[in-house]
Design brief:
This protein has about 650 residues and is of the alpha/beta class. The chain folds into three domains: about 10-185, 2-Layer Sandwich (Beta-Lactamase), CATH 3.30.450.40; about 200-380, Reverse transcriptase/Diguanylate cyclase domain (Alpha-Beta Plaits, 2-Layer Sandwich); about 400-639, EAL domain (TIM Barrel), CATH 3.20.20.450. Strands 14-15-17-18-19-20-21-22 form an eight-stranded mixed beta barrel, surrounded by four helices.
Length: about 650
């Protein structure tokens, strides 16, 4: 018996010149064949069907480990054990240590028995033979299988047989490792798709999933496959009050229960999503306006009764905005001169969301606990590409744009260190318009510079007020566009004087990609005036690490897509841990966006992330509310 094959050298592989070429050629051919095999099982049958006979062996069985049962299972065979195409006659299973095969697996060494009649471990399978060779298949330090061969002659197997089967074993291991890696990758991709498309708290589809589905529905509508599309935006009333009184755990519990109540109230054909915080959405297709409005009424009724939480029974309600688009029918648009009008088949999903959002705000303003409808019937939206430029100019001249502030906190103490300034558009007809609904247009139209200047002036005035009245070291972060970073005129005259210590700059890769060198110079100038430079949405852009090397940077903002998976995804945790190491290497601070749960906060604190913002602390709010929030926070700390 040979239990230690470490002394076998490569020369043992080639016993004679006649045999050497056939052995070497068999290994080469097997290696080539394995590349095209789709599975490990296919590889094993390739070995036994096409290559074992070349080695002059009478019999060969390949075992693989069934990890669940810890059994070595016969998977492929050559000789009497083979029964038809990819089938084994009377397959057997062995435990670790059972038989010469089990001993090989347990000891992870090749075992050669010259005379099996003298070996106590020999197990007769299909028929008794005189000699046996077992070679382990090892992956990651553990035995995953065994190549076992028997022969009718004593002393048949030699060192070159061991070396050859070891080479074939290594090739099988390579294919096994690749298959496992592919399986792990597919599982990771599946988990990532789940994280990207579903809300971790409620298990409902998230904003990304909803918007993707809405875009697909609008394309179906434009092709004539759908007759109408409706969007309902639902915002829970008094949620912040419940959160403040009973704590964030109660707020999370409430969102879970509301999600289930909404789910039960709606037919499965409708897409219900949680957009974030206490905001939900429903996508309705091929329903009339009356039916879509009935969906809103069903949602209101679903939360009409008190909801029992662990800490208390609470009452909440919903404010719902509904926007629907359906084409004009012949009856609705027919005239004597045109009895069958052309049906309008253009639908802007962004406009539909904006109108639903505006209707939701009108529902809140008119008393809450109701559904308000905004309808588009064969006509363009309130804000379209055609009238957007004029509407923006009007908004600038009549002060329709409003400054909203979201607190930035130091995670260890949860003290407010500053605010991020955000723009909102209080449109007289469309309601509250969010920046993602008009900023892209403003960048294309060249109006973004005027919006930047407006926000800079408003932010500076607000900063001066807050520092004078409440906290002298408070700061405000200003999001800037490529327009600001590409024009040196910004820094000349009165405009340049607005940039002072405390007015921090947030910039995305998108804003600097056109002219990185100029942007780096501008940011360096701002840094010298006392502004801190925040790199926003880090990790979601084009080439984050390369841009960090070129740009002045004081703080890296970790995008909320990384934060949302903390506590549930090992990948999210690893990514944030990597960013912590990167920040330490660069000597920069970290700010986590989108913190919504206490668990996320505790993980970030444990990792050493310094700052954060998100619904766990406060939502974006008008300046007057932000002042009151900061004042209450300072008063609480003093007491």
């Amino acid at each position: 018996m040979i239990c230690d094959d470490s002394h076998i050298s490569s020369k043992d592989l080639l016993p004679t010149s006649e045999v050497s070429w056939s052995y070497a050629q068999a290994i080469i051919d097997f290696t080539t064949s394995v590349i095209h095999a789709s599975s490990v099982d296919e590889v094993l049958w390739l070995l036994t069907d096409e290559f074992i006979e070349i080695l002059g062996l009478e019999d060969c069985v390949v075992y693989l480990l069934d990890e669940a049962r810890q059994k070595l299972v016969q998977k492929a065979a050559y000789g009497h054990k083979k029964s038809g195409l990819a089938r084994i006659r009377n397959p057997i299973e062995l435990s670790y240590g059972e038989g010469i095969t089990g001993q090989c697996a347990e000891k992870q060494r090749s075992i050669l028995v010259s005379d099996v009649s003298t070996d106590p471990y020999y197990v007769v399978d299909d028929q008794a033979r005189m000699s046996e060779l077992a070679v382990p298949i090892i992956s990651g330090g553990k035995t995953i299988g065994v190549i076992d061969s028997e022969h009718s002659q004593k002393d048949f197997f030699q060192a070159h047989h061991i070396a050859t089967l070891r080479a074939l074993s290594s090739i099988i291991t390579t294919k096994y490792d690749r298959q496992c890696a592919l399986s792990d990758l597919q599982e990771s991709e599946s988990k990532l798709r789940r994280l990207a498309n579903f809300d971790s708290l409620s298990n409902l589809p998230n904003r990304h999933h909803f918007l993707t589905s809405l875009r697909a529905a609008t394309q179906q509508y434009e092709r004539g496959e759908l007759t109408g599309i409706g969007v309902l935006i639902i915002d829970m009333d008094r949620f912040k009050l419940i959160n403040d009184i009973y704590g964030h755990a109660a707020g999370d519990e409430l969102m879970v229960k509301v999600s289930e109540l909404f789910r039960q109230a709606l037919p499965e054909s409708l897409l219900l999503a949680r957009l974030g915080g206490d905001e939900f959405a429903v996508l309705v297709t091929d329903h009339s306006l009356v039916e879509a409005e009935a969906v809103g009424e069903a949602l209101l009724a679903a939360v009409g009764d008190p909801i029992s939480l662990t800490v208390a029974d609470v009452r909440t309600s919903a404010s719902i905005g509904l926007a629907e688009y359906h084409a004009a029918t012949a009856d609705e648009g027919a005239t004597l001169s045109n009895p069958t009008p052309i049906v309008q088949r253009e639908c802007d999903p962004t406009a539909l969301m904006r109108l639903a959002d505006g209707a939701m705000y009108r529902a809140k303003a008119s008393g809450r606990n109701r559904c308000v409808v905004s309808s588009m019937l064969g006509s363009g939206p309130v804000l379209s590409e055609l009238n957007m430029a004029a509407a923006i100019n009007t908004a600038l001249s009549t002060n329709q744009f409003e400054l909203y502030l979201q607190p930035i906190v130091e995670l260890t103490t949860q003290d407010i260190t500053g605010f991020e300034s955000l723009i909102r558009w209080a449109h007289p007809e469309a309601g509250m318009v969010l920046p993602d609904q008009f900023i892209d247009f403003a960048e294309r139209s060249g109006q973004i510079g005027a919006i930047d200047l407006y926000m800079l002036q408003q932010s500076r005035e607000c900063l001066d007020d807050l520092r004078r009245d409440l906290q002298d070291d408070i700061s405000i972060n200003l999001n800037v566009s490529a327009s600001l970073l590409s024009r040196s005129a910004w820094f000349d005259g009165p405009t340049g004087e607005l940039f002072v210590e405390g007015v921090n700059i947030e910039v995305t890769e998108r804003a600097v990609i056109a002219d990185t060198a100029r942007a780096a110079s501008m940011l360096g100038d701002l840094q010298s005036r006392g502004s801190r430079i925040f790199i926003d949405d880090f990790g979601t852009g084009y080439s984050s690490l390369s841009y960090l090397q070129m740009l002045p940077c004081d703080v890296i903002k970790i995008d909320k897509s990384f934060i949302s998976g903390l506590g549930e995804s090992e990948m999210s945790l690893s990514l944030v841990r990597l960013l912590v190491s990167l920040a330490e290497t660069m000597g920069t601070d970290l700010l986590a966006e989108g913190i919504e749960t206490r668990e996320q906060l505790e993980i970030l604190q444990g990792l050493g992330v310094g700052y954060g913002q998100g619904y766990l602390f406060a939502r974006p709010m008008p300046v007057t509310e932000a002042r009151a929030h900061l004042k209450a926070h300072l008063s609480k700390n003093q007491n």
